[in-house]
Amino acid sequence: MVGHAIAETVGTADFATFYARHHASTLAVVLALRGSDVPAEEIVQEAFLVAYRRWDDVAGMDRPDLWVHRVALNAATSRLRRLAAETRALTRLAGRRDAEATGVPPLADDDVRFWATVRRLPRAQREAVALHYAADLPVADVATVLGCPEGTVKSRLHAARERYAALIAEER
Amino acid sequence: MEPRDDFDRAGESLRERATRLTRGHDADEVVRLARRRRVWQGATAGVATIAVVVGILNGLPEPSVDRITVEPLAPSEAAPSEPPQPSTGSDDESTGDGDLSGSPACDVAETAAPPPITASLGTAAAAPPAAVAGGSLVAVDDQVLALAVEGSPAAALFGPGDGWRCLPTPELTDLRLAIGGGDRALVVGDDGAALLDPTTARWTALPLPDARPVGGVWTGHDFVVVLEAPAADAPSGVAAMDPDTGEWRDLAAAPFGVNRDYHTTVLWDGEQVLLLGNWLSTTNRASSLTARLAAYTPESDAWEYLPDSPLSPQAARAAMAGDRLVAVDYGQVFAEFDLDERVWELPVSKTGLAGSECPPDIAATDTQVVITSCWAGAVLDRVSGEWTDLRFDGDVREPVALDDGRIVHWHVADDGATALLVYEPDSAMTAAADVCADVRGFGTRLADTGIAPDEAAPATPADLADDVDLVVAGVLTGAAAAANGPGPAGESYLAFEFEVTETIKGDAGAGDTVRVSIAFDGDPARSAALTRDVPAGASVLVFAYEVTDAPGGWVAADGNGFAVACPGGPPLGQVGDGPGWPGMADLDALLDAAR
After folding, report:
1. Residues A77, A113: one domain?
2. Cα–Cα distances in Å, from A86 out to A92, B122, B213, B500?
3. ipTM score of the complex?
4. Mutate which of B8, B15, B415 to test chain A, going by most A C-beta atoms within 10 A?
């Protein structure tokens, strides 16, 4: 049976440890980019599903956590994958609000406004912000995930902060 | 407060929230999901080649040829190889030039790989350029325009002659809408719009409409675009683009608002623009009980409400099939709207597919309707009224009807290999093809019982045969039943009936009718799926234990005991994975190995 094959080969215990260690930071990235809890959780689940299916390869990587961040980032910004995740979520929850669905109180209004503003930044900037501030990844790791030099990440973060300040000023 | 402080504080808050949300999840969810979605594949070997060739199990008549081949190609976009590549198409990396002199972002040379799929009803076209594979599809005459949806949209045309031709990239990012019309196509992105003349392969830059478009259609004179409504009680604006002038003009606003492209359809029936959908909040609260329908008449610049549909207010799509509007929702409810009588009809309330949590899509011609929904599809022969249930080894999406009567859609395998499947207008819904599609679907469901055995599978079929009490080949009768409730460790059983054709081991003779149960995890949805559409006439090979707590007294060996196959095809379903199992060409080979 194939399921048996996966369970044996993948090393479920290792995957479970990996999942437990890195789910929250991956979810934080997607929450930053998407906003709504439940679709974000669906997207992260999809990312870990990809990792699980390729665990033989992923487990051998130097930083599988950065790889799964990349997968989640792609999924969060892929229109088709996002739509599928959102629709699954809405179907499952039949229109319940995030807080009702998860039992976790919503973010404070200031934080909601902050991340909504971040989502108005150019894509390269908002991805860097999500990885650095939401996932708390150091610049070097952000550069690895985004596949660009550290200097580029720093300049994107700097530009993001300036653009954010400008957007906030416009609102006031 | 300094902006930098905002960033640190908000980051901490979000991490805290993510941590709290994570407490509701664990890795088992992913493992269960993987099993649920799994199709028959060589999971450990990293090889996903499934070849279904015609053949027979002992004594069965030989049907016509069908071949399905799935070969892994490049990794999918969502699963980059290490190290991660800068493939996100950031805003400041847009390279579209909108002119013939520019370099296309796709490369037909990439399409040299053989077609990865030849399906029984659709046939696979030449593999698409990787840059557009799985992207948005629109019909332009009898050609198909494929566009990447992320970043700067690479573009390519398929046909005529069934070849791919790369196009320059339009100067816009993040595709929002693409409309094929006559011999041109309109595309709208986040920051620009463009008009394609496929004859010259030239894009002409256009201004953006006043709001984000969520649907549109070509009326023969204009591209009419319905715009996102800002609130549940606000109507959607409507704009028209005359390709000869390249300018937008406002039309009368729609009588209701729409805001999600996967839940909005804009069609042209030859006289009126039809709009199906409604408004959904960010938490998917709908503005009406069902999807709404309205019609716009260009001559009078006026909309009128038509009767609300019987379809879900959350995910419904529609297409024109001759003079009728055909529609489907994510619950696979299928309905037709009679434009003359102005009434909704439910000729077949369900497509035959299980309800899916995927946004459905639909394309139609005078004679066929094709519905896709993640890894499943259905084709309606409008002449006979019969549905053919199609299941695929991967996602299917973006069905599009061409002017020449063909319907095409993407097939994206789990490993990202993508093919364009083409349905000819007169493609017969052959019984052989139907049975094989059903068998594949049934085999997938058999493999997806939600229960993994606790101990290692026997290394070879012969080892398993030694271990069990019954090894028989047979033919499914189609009968199935949920059996004796929750069993040990929360398991339940489903019984399948078949007529024995050959006995290798055990107390059963040729011609006997045997009921063999399999264990599953008790999920009612899985139970319903497993007992639905059991393909009568399909060949089976069963390894079973004699037990006292299952109807018929037999239960298929733990996770290894119930194989089914398309005629002559490889074993599907609960097939062992030890070193002696792979490479079984068909059930005959498995039967021989068990002797």
Report:
1. no
2. 10, 29, 19, 47
3. 0.86
4. B15
